[in-house]
Amino acid sequence: MQTIEEILKIKKVNNTAIRTVVLRHLLSQEKAQSLKDIENVLVHTDRSSIFRTLKTFEKNKVIHSIEDGSGMLKYAVCAKGCNCDPKDLHYHFYCNNCNKTFCLFDIPVQNIELPDNFKIQQANMVVKGLCNNCNK
Amino acid sequence: MQTIEEILKIKKVNNTAIRTVVLRHLLSQEKAQSLKDIENVLVHTDRSSIFRTLKTFEKNKVIHSIEDGSGMLKYAVCAKGCNCDPKDLHYHFYCNNCNKTFCLFDIPVQNIELPDNFKIQQANMVVKGLCNNCNK
DNA sequence: CTTTTGGCGCAACTCGATTGCAAAGATTAT
DNA sequence: ATAATCTTTGCAATCGAGTTGCGCCAAAAG
User: Fold this and answer.
1) What is the Cα–Cα distance from B136 to B132, expressed in whole angstroms?
2) Residue B116 contacts A where some CB pair is shorter than 8 Å
3) What is the rounded CA–CA span in Å between residue A125 and residue B127?
4) Domain spans of chain B, in order of start
5) What are phi and psi of A91, to 5 degrees?
6) Rounded mean pLDDT of A32-44?
7) Whole-prediction pTM value?
8) Percentage of residues of chain A with pLDDT beyond 70
9) Distance (Å, rounded) from C-alpha B90 to C-alpha A9?
10) Where would one find coiled-coil regions in this protein (chains A, B) (predicted)?
11) Which contiguous run of DSSP H or E holds residue B69?
C-alpha cells in the first residue's frame, strides 16, 4: 500500500492539508464518494476547496469520476497503475436502495465492437440494482 | 412501424396534442434528445409541459432516459417490445465532439457476473469517443 | 526582504431539473 | 345538458449540483 504522500508525489500533485485529508477519506471508503459526502465529513472545509481538490486529483489521475445516475458525480481513487484509459475500464454498481456506488474492479469489461469509424475514448458503465446489504 | 396513436394506446398513455408531437419528434431523430433539444423544436410549448410529458413517457416505458455525462438527461424511444429490463439493455455512444448520443441497439451487452447477492435491475452503459462523423 | 505563485474561503452565479398553483380541457356521473 | 371530477397545461418560482470571481494568506523563488 502506498502512502498518501507517495501517491501525490507520483501523480505530481502538491501536498496540502486539505488534499491529504480528502485523499485519506477517499481511500478509507469502499464506495465512491460525492462532493456532498466529503463535505459532510470535512465540515470545516469549504465546498469549493474540496471541489477544486477533486478536480485537481482528477486531472492528475489520482481519482476518477463516475456518473451513476444519482445526479451527483461520484469519485473513487484510481487503482495503482490506472491511467483512466479504456483498458482501465471497470463496471460500477449503483445501489437503488442505499444509493452507494461501488467499483467492480474484478469484473472484466468486454471488448466492444463499435460501428465503423467510431472511436472509443472513455466509457462509463453503471449497473444498477440492489447491493448485497440491501438485497434481503 | 407502429403509428404514434398505437404506441400510446399500447403503453396506456392518453393521447394529447403535445404528447403526439413530442413522440413524433423523438421518433424522427436517430439520436437521443435532451429536454432542451425538444424545447428548441417546440418553441411554443412550455418547458414544464414537455418535461412532464417525458416523465409520463418514461414511467410508461414509451421512452428511456440516458445519462451520457453531458449533464443533460437524454431520451430515446424504446424499441418495440422493450420493457426497460436488463435484457433490453443496450450501449449508448456519446460523441465527445458533436455531443450527440446514439443507441447502439446492434451490439449485445455481455452478461455481467455480479458479486454474490448483488442484483441487477437496470444499467446505464455509455461509451464515449468520436462518432463516425467526427472521427476524421 | 520583496516578488511571485499556488491554495483557500466566501459569496455569488449558472443551468438543468422539478414543483406549486391556477386555468383550461376532457371525462364521467347525475 | 349540466354539474362534478380528473387530467393536462402554462407560468413562475424553487432546488440543488456544479462552478467561478475575487481577495487573502502562506510558501517558494528571486
Assistant:
1) 8
2) yes
3) 8
4) 4-129
5) -75, 155
6) 95
7) 0.89
8) 99
9) 40
10) none
11) none
